[in-house]
């Protein structure tokens, strides 16, 4: 019987964390997937449904604007944003993920690059009109999440929009009860993306499109 991809992912992540390399497991997982030895649980060969829903509702026009996809994975979310006309940068800490994105989308107009959310390029400071963060912060151990949240928020340009999609958990659920990844986000963590000039303008919590027993946040923020 094939092993559950989520179990495999947690094992790979646990091994990296034990080596004091809490972000190294992304490359380990994507490299194993490229070799046919693992499956990336969140890679379903299409853009995330909640992102697609937001696009359908907001109908953003990316003409003359920039966008960045945090944790690009194999590129499906980036391709949806490119199709809206944005000059799109999509980054991942995993070189294997970026290689797979290039392979999946050989004619793409997106700029797929290797970069670390916890140490992003300096010229990305408030550089993007649209920032899309799906499942990346929650894939980091809880002690790393505040820094990741700060770096995500810092990407948003004046007048720009941030869209965050993440697994949800109650604020009173202790961290010690979580066996991640993922480490779902509390309402307090979702609100922590805000800054004095980056405001939460819409927050929805709804069942996951793929598993109604799980709840997902969809949060939209706007910078003055």
Automatic annotation (TrEMBL):
<keyword id="KW-0489">Methyltransferase</keyword>
<dbReference type="InterPro" id="IPR029063">
    <property type="entry name" value="SAM-dependent_MTases_sf"/>
</dbReference>
<dbReference type="GO" id="GO:0032259">
    <property type="term" value="P:methylation"/>
</dbReference>
<dbReference type="GO" id="GO:0008168">
    <property type="term" value="F:methyltransferase activity"/>
</dbReference>
<dbReference type="Pfam" id="PF13489">
    <property type="entry name" value="Methyltransf_23"/>
</dbReference>
<keyword id="KW-0808">Transferase</keyword>
<protein>
    <submittedName>
        <fullName>Methyltransferase domain-containing protein</fullName>
    </submittedName>
</protein>
């Amino acid at each position: 019987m094939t092993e559950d991809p989520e179990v495999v992912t947690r094992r790979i992540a646990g091994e990296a964390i034990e080596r004091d390399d809490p972000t190294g497991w992304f490359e380990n997982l994507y490299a194993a997937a490229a070799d046919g030895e693992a499956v990336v649980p969140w890679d379903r060969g299409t853009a995330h449904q909640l992102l697609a829903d937001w696009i359908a509702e907001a109908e953003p026009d990316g003409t003359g604007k920039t966008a960045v996809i945090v944790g690009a994975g194999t590129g499906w979310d980036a391709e949806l944003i490119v199709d809206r006309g944005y000059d799109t940068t999509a980054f991942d800490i995993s070189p294997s993920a970026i290689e797979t994105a290039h392979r999946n989308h050989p004619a793409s107009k997106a700029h797929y690059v290797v970069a670390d959310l916890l140490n992003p390029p300096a010229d990305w400071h408030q550089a993007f009109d649209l920032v899309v963060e799906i499942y990346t912060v929650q894939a980091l151990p809880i002690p790393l999440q505040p820094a990741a949240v700060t770096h995500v928020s810092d990407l948003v340009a004046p007048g720009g929009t941030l869209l965050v999609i993440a697994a949800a958990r109650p604020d009173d659920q202790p961290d010690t009860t979580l066996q991640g990844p993922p480490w779902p986000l509390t309402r307090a963590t979702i609100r922590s993306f805000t800054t004095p000039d980056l405001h939460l303008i819409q927050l929805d919590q709804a069942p996951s499109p793929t598993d109604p027993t799980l709840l997902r946040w969809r949060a939209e923020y706007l910078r003055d």
